[in-house]
Amino acid sequence: MLEKVTTHALTITHEGFTGTSASFVVSRTGEDVQGVDIVLTDAVPDHGPTGWVESPANGHRYKSVEAGSWFECHLAAIAMGAHIVTIADAAEQQWLLDTFGADEPYWIGLTDEPVEGAWRWVTGEPLVYTNWGDGEPNDAHTGGEDYAHMNWEGARPGSGGWRDLGYTGPDWYTVRKAILETGAIGGRETAPGYER
Ligand SMILES: [Ca+2]
Ligand SMILES: [Ca+2]
């Protein structure tokens, strides 16, 4: 029985923009040769809008950025007059999930770096609502974990559950994006002690 398996990727260039698909396998077994159908569809965004999106609930604007570590995302936010997202209540959490999806991890503006265990929003807002996944925050690993992200894959699916991470842990580099937030007019003040 002849079996031929090859790996391919599909590259499409359209109006000067080029995209390449994830690799996929084409196999042919025996004489069972089939034609190849290619169907082009509008891709569904993987990780939400890239521009600012205003929430009708509070008039704040939000966008996702891929700036790297929590610190780098924090600095990127400041540079844009914004802050890493703060989540005041379940409705805001749900709006973020509806807008940016429940799958991809995003840093949120929550840290206990100044005082271990005293989680604070970067804006200085009181921490009222929380959405920690089971067993989190646990300050695991040598050096602890002082920075929070949402959409932890270990949390209940679709919940957007939070987890704390630290830069000595193995998952630190799995989160490279943050959702940024800014008020309807300008950004909120950034709380002292986080300008790093
Ligand atoms: Ca901690
Ligand atoms: Ca943790």
Q: Return residue spans where pLDDT drops below 50 for at least 5 consecutive residues.
A: 185-196
Share in β-strands: 25-35%
The CATH architecture of the domain at 53-182 comes to Roll
CATH superfamily of the domain at 53-182: Mannose-Binding Protein A, subunit A
* Overall body shape: globular
Percentage of helical residues?
10-25%
Give structural notes:
This protein has 196 residues and is α+β, with helices and mostly antiparallel strands. The protein has a domain at 53-182: Mannose-Binding Protein A, Chain A (Roll). Helices cover 11% and strands 26% of the residues. It has two helices and twelve strands. The protein has helices spanning 70-79, 90-100, and strands at residues 3-8, 11-14, 17-20, 24-29, 53-54, 61-66, 83-84, 106-111, 120-121, 147-150, 163-165, 177-182. It has a four-stranded antiparallel sheet, with helices on one face. Strands 9-8-10-11 form a four-stranded antiparallel sheet, with helices on one face. The termini are far apart. The relative contact order is 0.18. The structure holds calcium ion (2 copies). Residues 112, 116, 139, 144-146, 164 line the site of one calcium ion. The site of one calcium ion has 7 residues, from strand 11.
Quick recap of the structure?
With 196 residues, the protein is α+β, with helices and mostly antiparallel strands. The protein has helices spanning 70-79, 90-100, and strands spanning 3-8, 11-14, 17-20, 24-29, 53-54, 61-66, 83-84, 106-111, 120-121, 147-150, 163-165, 177-182.
